[in-house]
Amino acid sequence: MSPNALPPLSVVIPTHNTRELTLEAVTSVASQAPQDTEIIVVDDGSSDGTSQQLAQQLPAVTVIRNNTALGFSASANRGLSQARGRILLLLNSDAALRPSSLLPLREAFDDDPGLGIAGAELRYPDGTPQWSGGAFPTLPWLFALTSGAADLAGALPFYRRFKSPGTPPAGSIQWVTGAAMAIRRQVWTDLGPLDEGYRFYGQDLDLCRKACDAGWRVALIPGFVVSHHHGATIGAGDDAAGVANPEYLWTDILRFVRVNDGPGPAQRARWVMWIGARLRLGAMALALPLGSRHTREARRTRRALYSRAAKALR
Length: 314
Known about the structure:
By secondary structure, the chain is α/β, with parallel strands linked by helices. The chain folds into two domains: 9-135 and 173-230, Spore Coat Polysaccharide Biosynthesis Protein SpsA, Chain A, CATH 3.90.550; 246-313. The chain has helices at 19-30, 50-57, 72-82, 102-111, 139-147, 149-154, 157-162, 185-191, 203-213, 246-261, 263-287, 293-313, and strands at residues 9-15, 38-44, 62-66, 87-91, 95-97, 115-123, 133-134, 175-176, 180-184, 217-228.
């Protein structure tokens, strides 16, 4: 490759105090990437020796270090802005490529000039599928999210027979998760950077919405498979209820509606989400006296998180 030629692929991995997972992610890329692939790790003020370990074990990787933690979006933007590849792959530090995953990704972009953003088929480390993408949020979906109806339905065996994670209906993909999101350079040049106004979620939704509005196609790529720990990048100090912090998730999605659809739809979304949240809190209150002491304490902690999320919606 000549000095002025763009590499076919750049992989950008933001990280904050996830040293071992970051090493695993980088190794999963380096083990299958062509020699001209650019790998960039953005160390967002880590205190666990991530940068030093990368320098010792993987010296070919470019490491950009933030002296203080700037957050996921800012770190991703810093890495993506310095990446030179024709395809820019944003990869979470808690995600690792499965073997032979990069070739289907590159072929998809080569074969379809209208493909703007592509996502991976995400799997938990044990191989079970995760949600990897879908349609943009609707009012019924927002109600299901905050009320807990989506979680309840997902726990029913017959529901999963017809609606399995990771298998959205054909033609329904409008967004893909930023855990493993590949972006055509022209899309990034025309529509980037990621909106840093989102606290943790929503940047992927927002960029995909802009790409769709500009006429680009968004798709999940068969064979592009990524193992994702789902939540390890958030950290234990974020008071996440399960794998997602409800306050960050709900307010970021509400911001997405406001930014892309305007104040009227955002106000309707806010009321629908708030009603759903109140119903969830009511159901949780009824369950508080039941079970063992440990169960009751866990329920009180979980309800406090959702109560804080509901207040944030107001």
